[in-house]
Each structure stands twice: as C-alpha cells, then as structure tokens.
Amino acid sequence: xxxxxxxxKEHDRASLFSLVAGISNFNPEEIExxxxxxxxxxxxxxxxxxxxxxxxxxxxxxxxxxxxPIPIADKRWDLYWIGVAPHQAxxxxxxxxxxxxxxxxxxxxxxxxxxxxxxxxxxxxxxxERHGYQVAGVFPDFYRTGDDKIVYxxxx
Length: 156
What we know:
This protein is of the alpha+beta class. 30% of the residues lie in helices and 35% in strands. It has one domain (3-155): 3-Layer(aba) Sandwich (Aminopeptidase), CATH 3.40.630. It contains four helices and seven strands. α1 (13-21) runs antiparallel to α2 (28-43). The model has no long low-confidence stretch (mean pLDDT 92).
C-alpha cells in the first residue's frame, strides 16, 4: 500500500478523531487529550504543535504523529502522540511517521517521548527502542499506582 506523509489539514479533523477513538490501547482520558491536542494543532500554528498524517492511496488516514518544541529549551522536542489504525499496525506506518518527523527536525535535535509502563504499552516501548530511543528516566506510579511514566529520548 502506498502511503504519503503530509502535514494535517482542517478537513482531516474527523478522520483523526475517529482514528484515535479506534485505538483500543488509549483509555477515555487519553482519547480526549489526543483529540484536544489534534484540535489545537489544527486550529493554530502559534501553539507549536506539528501534526503529520499518513494518507493511503484512497485518501484514508491510517496514522498520525504530533510533536512540538519544548518551551524554553534549546533544540529539544516532545513527541506527543503517534497513532496507527489497529488494522494497519506493524505495517511500517508508524516507522514512516517517525522517520518523517525526525527528517523534518534534522540533526542536532533531541526528541523526548513519554509512555506508560503498563503491559498495553509494551509494543510502544519496543517500537521506540527499535528506532534508537533510549530510556532517559522512569517516574514510578506517575499515572496511577503501578503505572510508571517512562521517558525515552533520542539525539538526531
């Protein structure tokens, strides 16, 4: 399947909201936060969010990535969200989105990404590790008891 990575546009909003709602790994609070971040990214360039989508040859959006600069930090970026439709998982779309973000950022930048320590996020942690991200820190019981926040980083 041919995939094109491009900046998100306003007309992508409903498809992105639907995509996020269909990712079973996201709990209701995460879905709501992802919708908020996507909405903010589409509403204004001033907020610093960058939103890229993967578009297939039929115009469907099987994935997205949202990232932005870390305020008051030099050459430091947060990867806020990356999501791929469950039926497209393990098809390379997430890797293409991550590579597109890294290419746009360029050398000399550092990217941070937070994830959960719960079993539902094992594949996410493995994904980041396969792409050269290393654990920079662990915050025990951050999200709730037994759910640590794991922060990965990668120097580009």
